[in-house]
Design brief:
The chain is α/β, with parallel strands linked by helices. The protein folds into two domains: 134 residues, Rossmann fold; 58 residues, 2-Layer Sandwich (Alpha-Beta Plaits), CATH 3.30.70. It has six helices and 13 strands. The strands form three sheets. Strands 2-1-3-6-12-13 form a six-stranded mixed beta sheet, with helices on both faces. The protein has a four-stranded antiparallel beta sheet with strand order 8-9-7-10, with helices on one face. Strand 1, helix 2 and strand 2 form a beta-alpha-beta unit. Helix 1 crosses helix 2.
Length: 226
């Protein structure tokens, strides 16, 4: 196993230890989450899981992890997911696996959001590209409004959206996020603001390090609705 894969595994195993019996847990999508699924199955924790993609759901089923339909719940105890880039102030770029719309919905519905990455994903500033999910209808005009954008040669999102990447500069993530969100034809973008993030687990150099955002809290008085 290469050092980057080992870092992913270390972060995933550490995050899996936070999952307790009776929890309702959101599961992201991607190579780091694949290590998380294995770690959860090995622990044998009696929790229930909401998956952000058919790929994650299929692996969870193979490992015997009980999956709930997201339409059946309104609140989760925690969501755990990877990221493509993480800045020191906890801005994220996500969506390399083309599931960022569902990932953002699950993170927003969770009392805590734990991000698991290897150390190569830590960056001083976001570089991009920023994944986008676009409405197929009027796609050419949407792309013209966006400017620096390129369609990705991948299947549609789990909900049928077209996957693309914004290639322009990221001078201020908040300004760009607002601009992308307000562009007609954009379903969702892959910029996740710091206020969504509770903790980041970084795997590298043989250990997992927990980083907490200063104003984030890992506890919340109201439990998840089941």
């Amino acid at each position: 196993m290469g050092s980057q894969d080992e870092g992913k595994r270390l972060a995933a195993v550490a995050a899996a230890e936070r999952v307790q019996n009776g929890m309702l847990v959101g599961l992201g999508t991607g190579s780091t989450v694949a290590y998380l699924l294995t770690a959860l199955a090995e622990r044998g924790v009696r929790a229930q899981f909401v998956c952000t993609s058919p790929r994650t759901e299929a692996i969870a089923g193979q490992l015997g992890l009980p999956v709930r339909d997201f339409d059946e719940v309104t609140r989760l105890d925690v969501a755990i997911d990877g990221a493509d880039e993480v800045t020191p102030d906890f801005w994220l770029v996500k969506g390399g696996g083309a599931a960022h719309t569902r990932e953002k919905l699950v993170a927003a519905a969770s009392a805590a959001f734990i991000v698991i990455v290897d150390s190569t994903k830590l960056v001083p500033a976001l570089r991009g590209p920023v994944p986008l999910e676009l409405v197929r209808f009027g796609l050419a005009s949407t792309m013209a409004r966006l400017g620096s954008v390129r369609l990705r040669e991948v299947p549609p999102s789990p909900d049928g959206g077209v996957i693309a990447d914004y290639l322009g500069p990221i001078e201020d993530p908040a300004t760009l996020a607002a601009s992308l969100a307000s562009t007609p034809g954009v379903i969702e973008h892959g910029l996740f603001p710091p206020e969504m993030v509770t903790e980041v687990v970084v795997g590298g150099d043989g250990e997992a390090t927990w980083l907490a955002r200063a104003s984030a809290s890992t506890t919340q008085s109201q439990g998840a609705s089941r």
